[in-house]
């Protein structure tokens, strides 16, 4: 335990550097780190970590190597120049517990710019909110990790445990970034991931499968449509069949702890559709993209088999439909953060100290990289971050004061979890 006086020094250090933290976060948001275009944002983070004297590691993701791990996602892009960045703090004498401070730098596409009230990359602060694509999800969290670490040292202390500050890619599509860091050998006694989670702790989250379904048809001239087979019409039949699986899985929520009280924990999103070659030809093909959620405890292989069976059955009806699914990204299982870990107990104390309230927890039907550390490294992983609005939507924004409080809580967590010693002068 650290003393009240030590805690106050750390909290004051967060406040003293908060304007700089906000400026850094805004600069990070201004880098459009879309998939495979994360380079400039990673360069900014690399320079920031290196400038703090951390031991730096930057490497390109290796699709072939990742494919050997059961938790990898299918790779449909080139990983050339797609890199992770890790800065490591190593104490002179490692007497405390180790910690990973993880966050992802990749962001989802911004959509039509004219649907935003301002540029997605301007990063203004308006009425207590920082705007921009990735502001909440999750560049505010990445910066919070860095400045929480700063605050402990600025307060005159040195952490007694090893700390890895990780900026990873591919969180929004495969989870391969954090998985690559794990496969590279990065381990610790606990992990914090400050995703935008409403000042709360994630207790459980779903797994996610990404796949594309290709439906084949028989092209003819529209005057002879009766002798053709419209692949776009057939695609909607395939979508309806998948909706039936979605409905069935939702009826099973009572069998899955932490999901039983959610109205609709399993969501299938049909995120894209394209088909046909010519307005006056019955379409010979149609493809649509699917994001399907699965419960923790359900293996990705089992869920995939059920989805494949659903689509294969369409080929045995009165009007057979050829609908073939292909993996395109996530093949990730969900996880539960079981209560009772010492890491959670420490976070409960630091949260109460900063917020003046008990730490709440909730279950999310979204994907989180916490599954990498929980499932494959048996490490307590605390996904805990600031209040945000419209992530993945227009006018994404994150609460400035929530960022400040989360940074304070993480800084105190570093001190209590890793231990601190007075820095030599």
Structural write-up:
The protein is an alpha+beta fold and 425 residues long. It folds into 2 domains: 4-204 and 335-422, Aminopeptidase (3-Layer(aba) Sandwich), CATH 3.40.630.10; 207-332, Alpha-Beta Plaits (2-Layer Sandwich), CATH 3.30.70. Helix content is 34%, strand content 23%. The strands form 5 sheets. The chain has a 6-stranded mixed β-sheet with strand order 1-2-7-3-8-16, sandwiched between helices. Strand 4 (125-126) and strand 5 form a beta hairpin. The longest helix has 21 residues, at 231-251. 48% of the residues are buried. The model is unreliable at 223-227 (pLDDT under 50).
Summarize the structure in short.
The chain is α+β, with helices and mostly antiparallel strands and 425 residues long.
Topology:
Elements: H1 4-16, H2 18-29, H3 39-50, E1 55-60, H4 63-66, E2 83-89, E3 99-104, E4 125-126, E5 129-131, H5 135-154, E6 157-159, E7 163-168, H6 176-183, E8 191-193, E9 201-205, E10 207-216, H7 231-251, E11 268-275, E12 285-294, H8 300-313, E13 322-332, E14 335-336, H9 342-355, E15 361-364, H10 370-377, E16 381-383, E17 388-389, E18 397-399, H11 400-418, E19 420-422
Parallel strand pairs: 3-7, 3-8, 8-16, 9-15
Antiparallel strand pairs: 1-2, 2-7, 4-5, 5-18, 6-19, 9-14, 10-12, 10-13, 11-12, 17-18
């Amino acid at each position: 335990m650290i003393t009240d006086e030590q805690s106050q020094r750390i909290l004051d250090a967060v406040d003293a550097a908060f304007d700089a933290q906000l400026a850094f976060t805004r600069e990070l948001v201004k880098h459009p780190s879309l998939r495979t275009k994360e380079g400039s944002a990673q360069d900014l983070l690399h320079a920031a970590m290196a400038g703090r004297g951390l031991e730096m590691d930057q490497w390109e993701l290796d699709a072939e190597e990742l494919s050997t791990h059961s938790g990898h996602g299918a790779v449909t892009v080139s990983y050339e120049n797609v890199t992770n960045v890790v800065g490591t703090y190593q104490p002179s004498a490692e007497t405390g517990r180790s910690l990973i401070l993880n966050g992802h730098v990749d962001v989802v596409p911004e959509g039509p710019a004219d649907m935003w009230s301002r540029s997605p990359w301007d990063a203004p602060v308006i009425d207590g909110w920082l705007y921009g694509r990735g502001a909440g999800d999750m560049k505010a969290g990445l910066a919070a990790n860095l400045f929480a670490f700063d605050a402990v040292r600025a307060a005159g202390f040195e952490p007694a445990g090893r700390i890895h500050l990780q900026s990873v890619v591919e969180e929004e599509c495969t989870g391969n970034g954090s998985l690559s860091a794990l496969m590279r050998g990065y381990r610790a006694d606990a992990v914090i991931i400050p995703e935008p989670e409403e000042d709360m702790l994630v207790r459980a989250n779903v797994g996610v499968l990404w796949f594309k379904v290709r439906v084949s048809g028989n092209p003819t001239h529209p005057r002879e449509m009766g002798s053709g087979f419209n692949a776009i019409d057939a695609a909607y039949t395939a979508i309806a069949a998948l909706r039936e699986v979605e409905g069935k899985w939702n009826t099973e929520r009572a069998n899955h702890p932490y999901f039983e009280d959610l109205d609709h924990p399993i969501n299938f999103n049909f995120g894209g559709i394209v088909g046909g070659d010519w307005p006056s030809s019955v379409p010979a093909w149609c493809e649509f993209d699917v994001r399907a959620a699965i419960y923790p405890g359900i293996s990705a292989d089992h869920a995939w088999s059920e989805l494949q069976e659903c689509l294969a059955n369409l080929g045995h009806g009165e009007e057979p439909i050829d609908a073939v699914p292909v993996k395109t990204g996530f093949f990730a299982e969900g996880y539960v953060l079981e209560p009772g870990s010492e890491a959670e107990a420490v976070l409960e104390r630091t949260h109460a100290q900063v917020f003046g309230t008990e730490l709440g927890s909730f279950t999310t039907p979204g994907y989180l990289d916490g599954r990498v550390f929980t499932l494959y490294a048996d490490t307590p992983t605390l996904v805990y971050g600031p209040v945000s609005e419209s992530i993945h939507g227009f006018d994404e924004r994150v609460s400035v004061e929530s960022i400040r409080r989360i940074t304070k809580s993480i800084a105190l967590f570093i001190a209590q979890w890793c231990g601190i010693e007075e820095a030599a002068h």
